[in-house]
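note to self — DONT lose this again. spent like an hour looking for the file last time. sequence + predicted structure for the chain T wanted, 218 res
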Amino acid sequence: MSRFWHRILAALTPGVRLLIGSLAAIYLAAVIGEWLHAFDLYGWLALSGPKFWHGQIWRLVTYAWLPAGILDLLLNCLVLLLIGGQLERHWTRGELWSYCLVAAAGAGVAKVLPPFSNSQPLAGPAPMLFGLIVGWGFLCGREQITIPPFGETTVGKLVLVVGAGILLGSFFTAGITAAIILSAGGFAGWLYLWLKHKWLMNLASRAATSERMRRLEL
């Protein structure tokens, strides 16, 4: 039991801790506001096409910090625990948050573009967390991981299987629109990491060329 709690605490890196805390706090505030009939956070923060196109652009990312229910909160916090800490060890806290915003915005853009731009509100961090799963595969795809009782595999293969399962589950339970929005979150995260990787490789190449030229001049 002590080993289990040690693993949980190890996964609670500072960035993950703040993400989980913000999700829980906003969900609690939304429940209290609805219960007291004092305010409606879902009405202010959830994403819908018509409200976005009328200038409420904050909804493009705020929807992802508004869990759709207690089960949605718990499941996505579990994903954050399992994957968020792994990613934060490769990034800084700010890079983790930036990536989450990119994945959330990518799914949000898919939601507000035709033919998905409708008044049905979108809420919940699932697209953002799907982006984290894709990011884990991008960064750690070649790493070996043991999955009892299936044995050893690579992170990349695990991400492919899990990602396909999530998309199929979303398609059969919520429809093709929900699956496309999830995919958009993952694609936005992947594109962000790919462009960042290309940029860093270009900088490294320029630095190496400059160093060679400096040595030749000497």
